[in-house]
Amino acid sequence: IPFCHPDIIMIGNIMNFIPGVAMTNSFRDLFGGEIMSGLFRLCSVIIDAIVIAAGYAVAILLLGGAI
């Protein structure tokens, strides 16, 4: 494929997994006064994002660059 950009394809795939709705709901909970629920959901979102990024980083390292 002459115009294949693996880095752009990987970014597009990662964006499907980023928990944007959960982050929005966590901020809504925080601004609504539900501090514990908002903080718990925000921590969960941050951990999910870190795990997704680490998984892609490990895959890139193991395969020697962009797929």
Summarize the structure in words.
The protein is mostly helical. The protein has helices spanning 6-15, 20-31, 35-63.
Mean pLDDT score: 84
Tell me the total number of β-strands: 0
Measured distance between first and last alpha carbons? 13 Å
Categorize the overall geometry. Answer: elongated
Compressed to H and E, one letter per element, the order equals HHH
Overall structural class, as computed from helix and strand content, comes to mainly alpha
Low-confidence stretches: none
**Rg on CA atoms, Å:** 16 Å
Estimate the helix proportion, in percent: over 70%
Please, how many helices? Answer: 3
- What does the main sheet amount to? none
What percent strand?
under 5%
Summarize this, please?
The protein is mainly alpha-helical and 67 residues long.
Topology of this protein?
Elements: H1 6-15, H2 20-31, H3 35-63
Helix pairs in contact: 2-3
Search tags:
0% strand, mainly alpha, 67 residues, elongated, 76% helix
